[in-house]
Structures are given as C-alpha cells and as structure tokens.
DNA sequence: AACACGGGGGG
DNA sequence: CCCCCAGTGTT
C-alpha cells in the first residue's frame, strides 16, 4: 500500500474503532493481567460466550496472586463449559511464572512475555499492544480475514507459514502512534463488518482501500483449504447410584482430552448386544449392578471427533474395590466438580427423569 | 508441518 | 442436519 494511503487507512480504521467499538468489559481496563485473561478466553471463543466467564473469573481471581494461589479444581470449575481446558492450566502456569520471576509484573516485551506458558505469538502481541500500547502484531483469524481482503492476499491460511505473511503485513501497516486502537480496530472490523460470510462492505470504514472490494470478491477470501477427518466414537454413559444415595464419578487422566475433568463412567460401545456394554462396565468398575433405565441420547461434537452418547441410570450396591480414579459423591458434592458439557447433559437428563417420578 | 484440544452459532 | 469458527502446545 502506498505511503499516503497507508496513513489514510490507519486514520480511517482508528477513528472508526474509537467511534464504533463495542463496550466490552475488558475494554474498560488497561491492567495487563485482565487483558491477558480476556485474550486467553477469547481464543477460539466468541465474545458473547466469554463475557460472563470473564466477569466471574476476575471476581474470583482479581489479581495475579489470587490466580497463582488457586486450587486446580476451583480453576477448572470457573472454566467449566468454556472448552479447551488446557488454556486455563497454561494461564495459571504463566501467571505463576510472572509472580515468581517478574515480581508480579507482566513483561512488556515480546521476548519475555512469549516465554510464558500459554502465551503464543497472538496473545503476546495482543497484550503488548492493548495493555502497553506497543507497536506489535497480533494476528488472529479476524486479522487474517480483513487483511486478506484489503491486501488481496491469496495464500492458504491453513498453512502455518502463511501467518508470517500477515504478521509482516501488520508490521508494515500498523499505526505507530495508535497501536492498540489499530490492532483492536482490525479485530473489531473482522468481528462486526468484515465477517466470514456476507461481509457488510457498504458499512466498511476502509472499503476505499480494500483491494478485494474494488477488484475482487471479498466473500471468497481468505483462501483456506479443507482438512480434518472426523472420527466417531459411540459411548454408553452410566449414572450409577448406590444404596445410600451417592453417585459414581471418575476423574479423567491428567493429559489429553478433557484432562482432569470429571465424568460418569463410560464405556465404548462394542456391538449391538444390549447387555455387552453393561457387562464390560461391571467388570471395569467392579460393580454389582441392579435395575437399569434409559436416559438421553445425543451427539457431542469436538473439533476433531464426535461422541455418540447413549446414557443410562443404574442402581448399584456400594463396592470396596473401586478403580483409583473413581469416587462416590453425593449430588451436592458433585456440584463442585468440573464436568464437561456432555456429562452435564447426562446429569440434567437424570435429574429431570428422577424428579418426574 | 501435522495433529490435539471444546464448545457454540448460523444457514 | 451440516457447515463454520481458529491460537497454543506437542510431536
């Protein structure tokens, strides 16, 4: 972009942002910790979803020290339903590094802040530009979409190396006097005007600088190749209640999908024989099973796989030799356990079923 | 470079 | 129902 247009582009974007920006909770602070929390929550997650989590999280953990001191179970409970739970653990690990090694001051330069757990190129640039007003790139999906259209960049954004192109473009274009508003303006534009489908070009403050608007088809950018083969796994999930009114739940392993979250016992469905999976359950969990009743069936879609859930309610005699990751809890105790959404659905279904009796 | 990692919204 | 969204860590 020619120099004189670059200045005009910066001014049009920054002025539009100042005028039209949504009033969001994390835009009422410059506290680097709070900006950091918001940026981690906003990774792969929509603004409307994040807002209530952000408010609750910061009232529970108002400072770096509060978060550094938190129990993991309490942390995960705050994050419950937000997804990508390793974000929460990594955030806490990063916060502990800041408390330990940086005198509780979030670093204000890319090399140090990028060493923190969970802080990648995007989050580093977002915190540096928004909290410290540093002229650093913060390239997320919105920025790639906006700039692919404005600059007619036709590289495949599914390729990791393409991000370098966009980071270079931002460093070339960024308003050195207003880096915070410039970066947030790009993201705000992508979120509200320059949307993936049906971009509202006629409302766009920078359409006169947009190559795709003037010469091409903005709705067909950015270019992204297809990928990902979805795996499907059928599971039977069991809400198991013993004779003294406790429920059997297990903690998932510390690594992998839904790490350290709690769930009802579940077994992968093997065949069509109705009793096979229940036998497998009784063996795996060393249980004496009594009556059984059908609960909800549904599909839960992760980014890379799909669980097909069928759930059952089963009565059971209490057993002495449970697997180590299993525990009996009352309904009240279970309310404090972080559980992923599919398990909440099963639990909800159980509660509806039993209260109607 | 490829894959793992949640959950929600829209057409 | 199927489609879309996309940062960081690990390998």
TrEMBL record:
Segments forming domain HhH-GPD: 41-192
Entry annotated with the keyword Zinc: no
A matching Pfam family: NUDIX_4
Keywords: 4Fe-4S, DNA damage, DNA repair, Glycosidase, Hydrolase, Iron, Iron-sulfur, Metal-binding
Stored SUPFAM superfamilies: DNA-glycosylase, Nudix
Entry superkingdom: Bacteria
Species, as recorded: Viridibacillus soli
Cofactor note: Binds 1 [4Fe-4S] cluster.
Catalytic activity field: Hydrolyzes free adenine bases from 7,8-dihydro-8-oxoguanine:adenine mismatched double-stranded DNA, leaving an apurinic site
Enzyme class: hydrolase
Described function: Adenine glycosylase active on G-A mispairs.
EC annotation from Swiss-Prot or TrEMBL: 3.2.2.31
PANTHER family from the UniProt entry: ADENINE DNA GLYCOSYLASE
Record protein name field: Adenine DNA glycosylase
Protein family (similarity comment): Belongs to the Nth/MutY family.
